[in-house]
Specification:
Elements (H helix, E strand, L loop, with lengths): L1 H7 L4 H28 L9 H26 L3 H14 L7
Helix pairs in contact: 2-3, 3-4
Length: 99
């Protein structure tokens, strides 16, 4: 736990628990939101080829996760941490110029 606190620049164990809780909740939430989003664009698991359905679903979960990470972080009072976390991740992906 000390490594996380040092690496992420946080001070309290309570903040660390909140951050880990946000990651846990957001992963499940993004997967849950991806199902109606997949249906919205007209893809159904039963009628769509597996090689099309799952890559599209994974990409949707990825983008939904990025958006909802900020929202769930805001709800738990950790928006600043997750905003800087996301900007670092976008920079590593080569998308720094957009943020």
């Amino acid at each position: 736990m000390k490594q996380f606190k040092k690496r992420w620049g946080i001070q309290s164990n309570f903040q660390l628990v909140l951050i880990l809780l946000v990651f846990a909740i957001n992963g499940s939430f993004a997967a849950w939101v991806a199902e109606p989003a997949t249906n919205l664009i007209g893809l159904d698991k039963a009628t769509t080829n597996t090689w099309i359905f799952w890559p599209v679903r994974i990409v949707l979960v990825f983008f939904i996760y990025q958006i909802t990470l900020q929202l769930v972080g805001l709800f738990f009072g950790q928006f600043e941490f997750f905003w800087s976390f996301s900007k670092k991740m976008y920079a590593r992906m080569g998308l720094k110029r957009f943020f």
